[in-house]
Amino acid sequence: MDIEVPAYTLYVRSGGLNHMKKKKNLHKFSFYVLFVVTVIFVIPSASGKSKSNHKIILKWENPDEGTAVDFNTEKEYLRNIPVLSSHGEPSETITEVSLEPVLQKLILPGSENVDNAEEELFPDGMGLRIAKKALEYFEKKTRVVNINGQNLNIETDCSYFVRAAYWEGSGHTIDLFREAVQGRVTDLRTATGVILLDALFRKNHKFDPKSPRVGDVIIFDNTYDKNNNQKRDDYYTHTGIVTGIRQDHTIEFVHGNIGRTIRKGYINFDHKNISVYESQPVNSYIRARYSWDEPVRSLASYLVRGFGRY
Q1: Inside any domain, residue 246
Q2: Quick one: which of 9, 63, 224, 245 could link to 288 by a disulfide (CB 3.0–4.6 Å)?
Q3: What is the pLDDT of residues 116-155, one digit of tens each?
Q4: How many folded domains does the chain comprise?
């Protein structure tokens, strides 16, 4: 059996519950039910903590987080004037991550489905649903999405765009930011949205440098000169969602914060140095243009750090 309960952590069952063997003993099953109810309802109410204690505030100081461009031909790319990454002094960006309870599915020990808990929460089709949602945002020019109770602009923040696609595509069961913050997968004092995503997939799930699947999160480096030193040493600067893989191995993806909008891009490691092959786009120029830089190394194929997935 499975029931739905308010959960204070995204993976209540991962605290040992989902690894227990099936137990048919009624008394033991009742004990687990009592334990879960106590943890979820009794302990929080007895703690006397205020509502504000269920939130974590992340302060990000980089105003250009997630900056990228998106052109499909070298002519388009070179036609644009050089883009500088700095727009004056860095401004402080405050991101509030809610830890309030949300309705989650909890599979109790002793149920017939406990051994298949992972498949039930993360079925094979989830990647397709995430990709479909990302494409829907692109086609409908979606601006704001409610993620776990917060209205967030996904056009102007690439990591919020990814977070929204996972939130909606998973049926409101996966909040990537919330999981990353609760798991403290990286130093929250210096984290950005892209750093949170990269650390989450590397530590808790899967990270592949070259072989993506539909629905994967792409992490990019060097999409702009973040520290203004005219070097390619700027990591975790952009992110997007894989929405398709063509027969010629071209990876199609959708990403936010491209001129404050959502765009579709392309990556092909087989044709790393060109943007168009046989009249089809295979690599997008997604690095901001600089007069001192090599245009060919602004193709997406040069900027991929890797692909994260559940």
Answers
A1: yes
A2: 224
A3: 433 344 445 899 999 999 999 999 999 999 998 889 999 9
A4: 1
